[in-house]
């Protein structure tokens, strides 16, 4: 098995989802011309990302795989 265990695979998927979300979120913030537009664009990005990545969003925002097992 490439990842060594199901737990390791879960962590890798969680990290990839988080990185995808964060890259887009930070890009959105950096593109803003002022604080107000940055906040509005960040909220818009978040809602759009969640809508377009429903399964990944559920997994990501449920907590880390280690936390979910407790």
Give a short summary of the structure.
The chain is mainly α and 70 residues long.
Provide tags for this entry.
70 residues, mainly alpha, 80% helix, 0% strand, elongated
Ranges with pLDDT <50 over ≥5 residues?
A: none
Biggest beta sheet summary = none
Molecular shape: elongated
**Distance between termini?**
25 Å
What is the chain-wise order of helices and strands? HHHH
Question: Given the structure, what is the number of helices?
Answer: 4
Structural class: mainly alpha
Q: What would the average pLDDT be, to the nearest integer? A: 87
Percent helix range:
over 70%
Radius of gyration: 15 Å
β-strand amount: under 5%
Overall strand count: 0
Describe this structure in words.
The chain has helices at 6-31, 35-52, 54-61, 65-68. It has 4 helices and no strands. By secondary structure, it is mainly alpha-helical. Helix 1 runs antiparallel to helix 2 (35-52) and helix 2 crosses helix 3 (54-61). The model has no long low-confidence stretch (mean pLDDT 87). The relative contact order is 0.16.
Write the layout of secondary structure elements.
Layout: H1 6-31, H2 35-52, H3 54-61, H4 65-68
